[in-house]
Amino acid sequence: MTRPVRVAMLDSGVYAANPHIQRPVQGGVTILPEGEQAGFEDRLGHGTAVCAVLQELAPAADLFAVKIFDARLATSLPVVLRAIDWCVHHEMDIINLSLGTTNDAHRALFMAAIERVCARGSVVVSAFSMNGALMLPGSLQRVVGVVEDAACARDSYSVVADAEGSVHFAACPFPLDIAGVPRERNLRGVSFAVAHVSAQIARMWPEVQSPVDWVDQLRARREAGAGRDPSA
Q1: Model confidence at 227, in pLDDT bands (50, 70, 90)?
Q2: Helix (H/G/I), strand (E/B), else coil: 100
Q3: Which end of the chain is more exposed for a tag (fewer CB within 10 A), N or C?
């Protein structure tokens, strides 16, 4: 490919002065119910932590902050759909989506959005389930669904296949450690597992002819021994 892979982080933005942010992101936007707004400064820290994971594990990727959370980690369906369409319009390759919903009434709209993403050869990575409940859009076909696994090493992932043959992935749920702060006092959760898997895709992206089924690609790479922590 002629340019670096582009990863959009749909989250709370990025705080550029955080010491875990190694270099500036390439751009971004704030998505509001009424439209778009310039800027994407993080007031919560969550998006910054996601960005740090991606910068560490996929250093060659161009990262873009698409801010959909502000005062709390909650948003609305119209904002999420507008953010996904922003990513399609601005030619993002990987959409790292730090959210999910169990509301099945949103299924049709998410399916249509995923169709638009896949039509341009891009992929959405999102939470597959939380507390045993399937999430949208992470449990939809052609979305790379992720769950957290605290036993999974950083820079690794595992394949999870259910009885119906559906495949998703498990990964480390921790952001970068903070010096002098016990891990249990830091952020954690499936959002960071999603970021770990997005980073795996970003590193593979230049080698793979798009469009590709990334669920099959990740499974095949893992079965071949890729996606494994080299220190394990």
Answers
A1: low
A2: coil
A3: C
* DSSP β-bridge partners for residue 30: 37, 67
Domain boundaries, the chain: 6-223
Distance CA 63, CA 131 (A): 30
pLDDT class of 226 with cuts at 50, 70, 90: low
**CA triple 137-118-115, angle to 5 deg:** 60
C-alpha distances (whole Å) from 227 to each of 197, 223, 224 are 9, 9, 9
pTM as predicted: 0.92
Assign 232 a pLDDT band (cuts: 50, 70, 90): very low
129-130 vs 133-134, strand pairing mode: antiparallel
> CATH says 6-223 is which class?
alpha beta
User: First vs last Cα of the chain: how many Å apart?
Assistant: 31
